[in-house]
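Journal club side-thread
Mid-discussion, someone asked how the predicted structure for our own chain would compare to the paper's figures. Pasting it here so we can look after the session.
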Amino acid sequence: MNQIVLTGLVLQAAPVGEYDRRVVILTKEQGKISAFARGARRPNSPLVAAVNPFSFGEFTVYAGRSSYTVQSAKISNYFSELREDMEGACYGFYFLEFTSYYTKEANDEREMLKLLYQTLRALTNRHIPNRLIRYIFELRALCINGEGPQVFQCISCGTTKGQLVFSVKKGGLVCPDCGKDVIDGICLNQSTLYSMQYIESSQIEKLYTFVVKENVLEELARVMKRYTDVYVDKRFKSLEILETLVGLE
C-alpha cells in the first residue's frame, strides 16, 4: 500500500461495524475520495474528532487497491462554531451535501474545495446573512460545474444592448430580439444583476465581502429557487431540514 498525504475537508461520515467509520473527503489532490477510519469510534482514538463532517486539514492515508484507509490527520479547522449554531449547522450540512453531489473521484475539484472552505468560513461571520451565503454558494458552485447562467450578455446573440430579461429556461439573459418566445422572463433589479455578475466573476476569496438590501436578497432568492429547480436534478435531504427548521423556501 502507498502512503500519501491529502489536504481536504470531510463531507460525510458514517459508522461501519463496531468501531470504524467510513468517511467521504473532498481533497485537493484526488478529488472526492471514500476512506475507512479504523477504530475512529473508540473514545481514545486520535481520529475520533478528525473524521467528523466539516473537519479540514491534512489526512495521511494508505491507498489500497479499492479504497483508502486514514492513518492519521492534522486538522487545522474543525469549524466548531457550527456545532454550537443550529441554523449555521443546517446551512453547513446543505453545503456539504451539495458539494458531495457535484464532485467526483479523481477529478480536479480544487475550486469546489476552495469555495466550500470559504463558504463555511462565511457561515461563522455574523456580518453576512446566511441566506445570502446560500445563494452565493449555489450560483458559484453551478458556475464551477459548467451550469451557471449567462449574466453578462444575451445568451443567444451576445449583445448587451436593450432591455435584457433573465430567462431560467434559456439559461441567462435574453435580449428583446432573441426573446420573442420567452415566457419566463424576469426584469432583474440592476443591483441583483450586478450581484450575480460579481458572484460569477470575482475571486473565491472575495465572494463573501458584500451584503445586499432586502429587496435584492428576495429577488436573488426567487431567481436561484427557479434556477436550481430546473438545473439541479436532486432534492437534498439537508435542504428539506433547513427549510423546515429555519423556515426558508
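Post-session note: The mean pLDDT is 94.
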